Amino acid sequence: MYQLLTSLSRSDLLAQQLPTFVMAFAIAEMFYKFHSFTLETAAFLGTWFVLDWAAGRLRGAFSRADGANSGRT
Q1: Using CA atoms, how far apart are residues 41 and 44, in angstroms rounded to an integer?
Q2: 50 torsion bin: left (phi>0), alpha (psi -120 to 50), beta (else)
Q3: What is the DSSP string of the chain?
Q4: CA distance 54 to 48
Q5: Buried b / exposed e across 33-65, counting CB within 10 Å, b at 16+?
Q6: CA-CA distance, 9 to 12, in Å (whole number)?
Q7: CA distances from 34 to 8, 12, 57, 58, 60 (A)
Q8: Terminal-residue alpha carbon distance, the chain
Q9: Which class for 18: exposed (0-12), middle (13-18), buried (19 or more C-beta within 10 A)?
Q10: How buried is residue 12: exposed, middle or buried, by Cβ count under 10 Å (0-12/13-18/19+)?
Q11: pLDDT tens digits, residue range 12-71?
């Protein structure tokens, strides 16, 4: 967590991690009722990981598509 916070700039942190964090937090609040702090925390972190992975794949796909189309006029 410390490395995540120190390796990204504030604008990158807000643009990349905040949306997935908020979505994972909302999902965890609505659906995860394990009656165990440890299980709910692990499920929240796992959800955040998967959402961040998916968002990264989408960002990569769109950036490649934009790069491929930028040469055409």
Answers
A1: 5
A2: alpha
A3: -HHHHHHS-HHHIIIIIHHHHHHHHHHHHHH---S-HHHHHHHHHHHHHHHHHHHHHHHHHHHHHHHHHTT--
A4: 10
A5: eeeeeeeeeebbeebbeebbeeeeeeeeeeeee
A6: 5
A7: 33, 33, 30, 31, 35
A8: 43
A9: exposed
A10: exposed
A11: 888 888 999 999 999 999 999 999 999 999 999 999 999 999 999 998 888 877 666 655
Q: Can you tell me the distance from the alpha carbon of 22 to that of 46, in angstroms, rounded to the nearest whole number? A: 14
